[in-house]
């Protein structure tokens, strides 16, 4: 069942998405050589609580932190640690969720640590393009898999591969609502998109086409060959005027500033 949001609900969701956007921008500004992922996690939790919200991931299926920090070949769900020091040239996905007033917000950006190499830049550019294509496909009357197709076809056009083991999702009173949004597949399948839906497409792209592995910590997903991975996620509401990106293209904003 796909929950449709009323205009009043959408106002709360949009306000939470704006808060999440600001926190992700502030976190991205703190990413530099020498900082640990544990420090980023502590900042994220402090800023979320200061705004009267609560972390969405902490305790979710036993996840131990506020933020997911996935560095280089780590795809998603990297657990922050005060022993994990970021170094020049790393790429890190910051994935963050919060809850306030009964509604969730969830988004992710991949950020470069100092100057990153050409392969990382190409991967980030491709993943941003895949997310943009998915967000632009989020129109009333389209099918869920039109977003999937937009992601996979963009990834392949850039010479990268979509992650198949994780999906985007609906969001609202729960962190993960229907529908699931795979990062691959043909267009024209799945539920029809309707006014009032709020979706979180989250393309994850990588340089190999092997299955991802889960590390012994039970959470961290890594690419099969050690190839780099990138991940972006935004919240989009389906409106008669077209897709409304509630998190305001935060990924593109971060990379526009940096390049
Ligand atoms: N953005 C991710 C998702 O939608 C983050 C979940 S991490 C978890 O699944 F710890 F909460 F599982
Ligand atoms: Co998500």
Write the layout of secondary structure elements.
Blueprint: H1 7-30, H2 37-50, E1 54-55, E2 67-71, E3 74-76, E4 91-100, E5 103-112, H3 118-136, H4 144-157, E6 161-162, E7 168-170, E8 177-181, E9 198-200, E10 204-206, E11 213-214, E12 221-222, E13 229-231, E14 236-239, E15 242-245, H5 250-258
Antiparallel strand pairs: 1-4, 2-4, 3-12, 4-5, 6-10, 7-8, 7-9, 9-14, 10-13, 11-12, 14-15
This protein binds 2-amino-4-trifluoromethylsulfanyl-butyric acid (MF3) and cobalt (II) ion (CO).
Task: Please explain how this structure is put together.
It contains 5 helices and 15 strands. The termini are far apart. It is α+β, with helices and mostly antiparallel strands and 259 residues long. α3 (118-136) packs antiparallel against α4 (144-157). The protein has one domain (7-258): Alpha-Beta Complex (Creatine Amidinohydrolase), CATH 3.90.230.10. The protein has a 5-stranded antiparallel beta sheet. Strands 1, 2, 4 and 5 form a 4-stranded antiparallel beta sheet that branches. The structure holds 2-amino-4-trifluoromethylsulfanyl-butyric acid (MF3) and cobalt (II) ion.
């Amino acid at each position: 069942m796909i929950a449709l949001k009323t205009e009043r609900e959408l106002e709360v969701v949009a306000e939470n998405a704006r808060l999440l956007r600001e926190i992700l921008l502030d976190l991205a500004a703190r990413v530099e050589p020498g900082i640990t992922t544990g420090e980023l996690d502590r900042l994220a939790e402090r800023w979320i609580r200061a705004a009267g919200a609560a972390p969405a991931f902490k305790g979710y299926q036993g996840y131990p932190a506020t933020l997911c920090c996935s560095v280089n070949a780590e795809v998603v769900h990297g657990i922050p640690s005060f022993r994990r020091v970021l170094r020049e040239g790393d790429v890190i996905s910051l994935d963050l969720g919060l809850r306030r007033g009964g509604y969730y917000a969830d988004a992710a950006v991949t950020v470069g640590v100092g100057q990153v190499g050409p392969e990382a830049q190409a991967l980030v550019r491709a993943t941003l393009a895949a997310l943009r294509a998915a967000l632009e496909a989020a129109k009333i009357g389209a099918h869920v898999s039109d977003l999937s197709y937009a992601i996979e076809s963009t990834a392949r056009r850039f010479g990268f591969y979509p992650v198949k083991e994780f999906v985007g999702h609906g969001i609202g009173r729960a962190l993960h609502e229907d529908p699931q949004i795979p990062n691959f597949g043909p267009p024209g399948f799945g539920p029809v998109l309707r006014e009032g839906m709020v979706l979180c497409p989250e393309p994850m792209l990588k340089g190999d086409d092997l299955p991802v592995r889960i590390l012994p910590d039970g959470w961290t997903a890594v690419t099969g060959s050690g190839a780099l991975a990138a991940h972006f996620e935004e919240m989009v509401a389906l409106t008669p005027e077209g897709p409304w990106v509630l998190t305001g293209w935060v990924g593109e904003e971060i990379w526009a500033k940096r390049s």
